[in-house]
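Dissemination and training. As part of the outreach component of the grant, students in the summer workshop were shown how a complex can be specified as a set of sequence lines and then modelled as a single object. The example used during the hands-on session is reproduced here so that future cohorts can follow it. Participants entered these lines:
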Amino acid sequence: MDRIRIRGGNPIRGKIAIGGAKNAALPLMVASLLTEDIVKLSNVPDLMDIKTLMDLLMSHGVIVEMAWDKNSAACRTLALNSKNITNLTAEYDLVRKMRASVLVLGPLVARFGEAKVSLPGGCAIGTRPVNLHLAALKELGAEIEIEDGYILARAPNGLKGGVVRFPTVTVGGTEDLLMAATLAKGETVLENAACEPEVVDLAHLLVAMGAKIEGAGSSRIVIHGQPRLHGANHRVVADRIEAGTYAIAAAITGGSVELSGAGVELMGAVVESLVHSGVEVTSARDSLKVAANGAVQSVDISTAPFPGFPTDMQAQMMALMATAQGASVITETIFENRFMHVPELARMGADITIKGNTAIVRGVKTLKGAPVMATDLRASVSLVLAGLAAQGETVVNRVYHLDRGYQSLDQKLRACGADIERIPG
Ligand code: UD1
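and obtained this result:
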C-alpha cells in the first residue's frame, strides 16, 4: 500500500488549480440514467470514486467514453450514453465501495418503474442510513421492500408528484429525489432540501436536460415532472472542499496560495472562519487568494449544512486549530463518528480532548512528525496538513483513502514548495 512521506516546515506558496467537485460529478453522472440521449460532462476529476461510479453505471449498461479535458488541467470529459439499460440491479460489490452509488435508485425507478439496489452498509464515519431516500421515494408512490440486503423499489405506472419534507437535511436524499421527480407525473415539492452548491449544480444539468425546477439552492425546491428528458453538456462546478483544504495548507504553514477556479460563493462558512482566525482571504474573479498573516488565532466551529461549516472540512480545520493560539471548540453535528483523526493528530503532539460530539483543541507551538494512519478521506488529508506544519518527518499510511477524493495531492503541494513524496508500497 502506498504511503506519503512529508518533511514539514516549508511554507506552501504558489498557484493551485482546483478541479471539478467529486461530490458534484457523482450525482451528475447518475443523472445520465434519466435520458436515452448522451450527457456530456467536462471538468470531471480523475479520482477513484469517479471510476467506482463508472463501473456501477457500466454494470447497468451505460456506455461511458472518457477523454482528457483540454480546458481544465488534468480533468476529464465523460460522455454517458444510457440508451440501452440492460440491468436494473446495483450489486453489493459495487455499492459497498461507495455510498453515493445509492443515488441510482431514484433515477432508475423514475425511468424504468423498478430498481434493485444493495443497501450500502456502514462506513467509517458512522452508520449512514438511507431511510430518508426511501421514505421520500414512497411519497412519490414507489413501493419499497428490503430483501436480502437489497432495496427493491417499484412504481409500475411511474412515479407521481408529491410533497416531501425531509426531517433532516440530506444532500444525497435531496439529489436522489430531485432526479426522480424530474420524470414523475405532476408537481413535487422538496421541503427542508439541502442547499449545497453540488445540489445546485445538479439542478443546472437537469434543467439543461429539459427538467422544470425552481428553488434549487434554497430549502424549498419545486419540480414539474416531464415525460422525458434529453441530452445536455455540462461543466462540473469547482471542488470547494479541495479549495478549502489547500487554503488551510497555506494557513497552517505560514504561506500563501492562489486557488484558481474556486469562487468565494462556493465556500460558505469556511472563508468566514479562516478570516476570523486571522488568515487573509481575497477573492478575485474565479479565484481565491489565501495568505497567512501572522499567528493563526483559535476559532470555534460547528459543522452544519450549507452555507454552514462543512463536515467535510472539519478535520482539516482541526489540524489548523491544533497549532493556533488559544483553544478552539469544534462541534460535529452531521456524522456521529467523525473524530477518527484525533488520536492520530495526538500522536503528532496535538492537545485535543473529545466530549461527545465536541472536541476541545488547545493550540500547541509545534507539532512533531510521526507515522500516522489514514482512516477516511478527510481525516487522511488533515494528517497531511498537520505533517506539512510539523517538525520532522510524517508518514501517512493507507493513502488509498486520499485517492478517493484528492487528485495529485502530493504533486500539487510539491509544486508549491512542500517536501512531500508518495512512496509506492
Ligand atoms: C454527502 C457528501 C459527503 C458529506 C455529506 C454531508 C457526497 C457524495 N457526499 O454525503 O461528502 O459529508 O453529504 O455534507 O456528496 N441520513 C440519514 N438517512 C438518510 C440519509 C442521511 O439518517 O437516508 C443522515 C446521515 O447519516 C447524516 C446526515 O443525514 O448524519 C447527512 O447525510 P447526507 O447529507 O445524506 O450525506 P451524504 O449525501 O451521504
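Residues 240-253 form the longest helix (14 residues). Students were then asked to discuss how this feature might be tested experimentally.
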